[in-house]
């Protein structure tokens, strides 16, 4: 037997790392993250890396990178897809399903309760005051999360830094995340770090799945003006979940064009309140679809909107997941994943700048001093007290906002 064959056989029979947690442990973690995880997708992906990779060591660095890559390449909300994939890693479809539901359910119930209060009491005037404080504090949380994620994943590699900075700059300029940039980054690292052999691609995989969808099926998305409201909600939010790439930052303009402009379900003020609800509640920003659905059609509308939005991202995660797990250790795939990860983390850093500019700088480029103080105080507290829970800081920022907002508006 040749040395090369022996090495190949040894790699084939390499021991599988022992799973050190139960499915119930991961479900409980997802439930807790969905209940107390403030900050939107940027912060949530950082929390998952900190908790599951660095502290608990349930997930390996490679598995996390695979999940982040898949979440960036597929349409739908970033944090939800990453959580679903991490549930899949050791417990398959059942794990992905239970973790996904546990992650999304708490924030859905919260926006449902806020939607009821909004309808019953004619709006939530206090929300602007709360968001004044919470918004600035959240920027501090996600800024620190983005810094730690950058430090951990980019390191000192010049190629990764080039991709990272390019992706961050493009995100800042365009205020959106570009799937072509992620793909290009993966291909670039693949070409530079490996010697790819160009073989005829397999007929299976994503292309085969897409080819199986009959073209005439998409025609059902047209001429929806006469459909019942719940059907309109289902179709529109399915499109939102299936065709919008990136985080909540990317999906909000799509929701605005449909909810306000096309269908007229909400007016401008109501839509801004819906976005504010998503920002002051934990979990993914996209959970605002539940609030929008409730305003239009009650509990049924909220439920249909949420299921329609998150079902595509669930399917886009579990269908390709076996291929990621099976082929993810190949050098070419590893290089591609590393390239996409560098671009994804750069886009996250760019999104922090975009969100910070919108939150801290209300008019032009003149920062609001109370918000700057809240941002810096949040970062200082988290840096000094490593185990200080983020929800405690969020609650404090909300109280500060309730006090300060009337003063700055007077």
What is the compact description of this entry?
This protein is mostly helical. The protein contains 17 helices and no strands. The protein has one domain.
Indicate the multimeric state.
single chain
Radius of gyration (CA) equals 22 Å
Note the beta-strand portion: under 5%
Gap from first CA to last CA:
83 Å
Number of domains: 1
Percent range of helical residues: over 70%
Note the run of SSEs as H and E. Answer: HHHHHHHHHHHHHHHHH
User: Which secondary-structure class do the elements indicate?
Assistant: mainly alpha
Number of strands: 0
Could you explain the architecture of this structure?
This protein is mainly alpha-helical. The protein has one domain. 75% of the residues lie in helices and 0% in strands. It has 17 helices and no strands. It has helices at 3-12, 23-36, 40-55, 61-73, 78-120, 126-153, 158-174, 179-193, 206-211, 229-243, 248-262, 268-280, 288-318, 321-327, 331-360, 369-384, 390-409. α16 (369-384) runs antiparallel to α17. The radius of gyration is 22 Å and the shape is globular.
Describe the structure using short key phrases.
mainly alpha; 17 helices; disordered N terminus
Would you spell out the secondary-structure blueprint of this structure?
Blueprint (H helix, E strand, L loop, with lengths): L2 H10 L10 H14 L3 H16 L5 H13 L4 H43 L5 H28 L4 H17 L4 H15 L12 H6 L17 H15 L4 H15 L5 H13 L7 H31 L2 H7 L3 H30 L8 H16 L5 H20 L1
